[in-house]
Design brief:
By secondary structure, this protein is an alpha+beta fold. The chain is built from 3 helices and 7 strands; from the N terminus they run E-H-H-E-E-E-E-E-E-H. The chain folds into 2 domains: 60 residues; 83 residues, Roll (PH-domain like), CATH 2.30.29. The strands form 2 sheets. Strands 1-2-3-4 form a 4-stranded antiparallel sheet, with no helix packed on it. Helix 1 runs antiparallel to helix 2.
Length: 155
Amino acid sequence: MRRISSRMTFVNKRVFPVVYFGLLLAFMAVPLALSIVRNTAPPPLAAFIVPAILIVGGYFLMRRLIFILVDEVWDNGNVLVIKNRGEQERIALSDIKTVSYSPFANPPRVTLSFLRSTAFGDEIIFNGPMRLMAFGGNPVLQDLIDRVDRARRKD
């Protein structure tokens, strides 16, 4: 089996949100804690409004772009093994309707639409493998697109 999803998905889905929200909460909590300890006036309201807006906006953006990503996608010949939150499903290449690839997104995003419903829904999105020079396309994903096309023609 060969992994076709990015190895950075764990960092993007699990580590980055914790760091992002943690830092914003710290920006709110530290000035407040310092004002309580020093027995001074609390910081201005703007010190809480801006981080709160960033928290809310960041959550909705992450919910739409990051939290929907599946954890891992493995290529096992004529089947893809998809893993997300402890669940695993095997999808035949002939059951894939379309493969959409956005090479200029950072990280590159791949959307697989299925002919039948799976445990993960009618489509999944994952981060494709990152390349240093992305201008020529991704040979791993181009190979997947070609094999899906051949598998669909056989059925």
